[in-house]
Write a structure and sequence with these properties.
The complex is a heterodimer of chains A (113) and B (115). With 113 residues, chain A is mainly β. Helices cover 0% and strands 50% of the residues of chain A. Chain A contains no helices and eleven strands. In chain A, the strands form two sheets. In chain A, strands 2, 4, 5, 6, 9, 10 and 11 form a seven-stranded mixed sheet that branches. A four-stranded antiparallel sheet of chain A has the order 1-3-8-7, with no helix packed on it. Chain A is globular, with a radius of gyration of 13 Å. Chain B has 115 residues and is mainly β. Helix content of chain B is 0%, strand content 51%. Chain B is built from no helices and twelve strands. In chain B, strands 2, 5, 6, 10, 11 and 12 form a six-stranded mixed sheet that branches. Chain B has a four-stranded antiparallel sheet with strand order 3-9-8-7, with no helix packed on it. In chain B, strands 1-4 form a two-stranded antiparallel sheet. Classes of the chains: A mainly beta (113), B mainly beta (115). At the A-B interface, strand 4, strand 5 and strand 9 of A face strand 6 and strand 11 of B.
């Protein structure tokens, strides 16, 4: 089965610009998560979708971040406008049901200059 | 609030030597504990997990971890390290209540293996 796919793998943008990250979970996985790792720090939870609904968005840093999961399939994470501190690696993960293994994508490395 | 501490940022071991990566957690109830590995250019791969039962858990690639409630620890071990084990290792704790399933990660330990 195909794994969790993230696009793009790298993105370099200027401060103030907009970037949209995409995540395609494993087919059939209702649960989708976004995490972020700022350089040298821990991987932090951003939010959790169950199908198209946001189950928990307590980790979203501020209102410059908007996550969507239309139709309960792929998800996008938009950063608008991007700031320098948004640089990091954004991971997406999915799982079929609660308590099943969490599968991670390779991440999107975002650099804001 | 739950938290995870990985006190070693960087560890270097010789190939064939034993390895122990430390992980301490803070959690109010019985935790779900995980170790993940990230090789260069790859995503996070689950090595092993502890939910309940036997406190010594076996994982993939010859890794094991022991849950010690009295020490709030979940250290990762491998008896003989291979050069391909060079990667970054993350310990994580998860909630075990209802559908709350987000993970809290440590800052990671980067393992370097010398030949």
């Amino acid at each position: 089965e195909a794994g969790v796919t993230q696009f793009p793998s790298h993105s370099v943008i200027e401060k103030g610009q907009t970037v949209t990250l995409r995540c395609d979970p494993i087919s059939g996985h209702d649960n989708l998560y976004w995490y972020r790792r700022v350089m040298g720090k821990e991987i932090k939870f951003l939010l959790h979708f169950v199908k198209e609904s946001k189950q928990d968005e307590s980790g979203m840093p501020n209102n410059r971040f908007l996550a969507e999961r239309t139709g309960g399939t792929y998800s996008t994470l938009k950063v608008q406008p991007a700031e320098l501190e948004d640089s990091g690696v954004y991971f997406c993960a999915s799982r079929a049901v609660y308590n099943s293994p969490l599968h991670f994508g390779n991440g999107t490395r975002l650099t804001v200059t | 609030a739950q938290s995870v501490t990985q006190p070693d940022i960087h560890i270097t071991v010789s190939e064939g030597a034993s390895l122990e990566l430390r992980c301490n957690y803070s959690y109010g109830a019985t935790p779900y504990l995980f170790w993940y590995v990230q090789s260069p250019g790859q995503g996070l791969q689950l090595l092993l997990k502890y939910f309940s039962g036997d406190t010594l858990v076996q994982g993939i690639k010859g890794f094991e971890a022991e849950f010690k409630r009295s020490q709030s620890s979940f250290n990762l071990r491998k008896p003989s390290v291979h050069w391909s084990d060079a990667a970054e290792y993350f310990c994580a704790v998860g909630s075990n209540t209802g559908t709350a399933s987000k993970l809290t990660f440590g800052t990671g330990t980067r393992l370097q293996v010398t030949l």
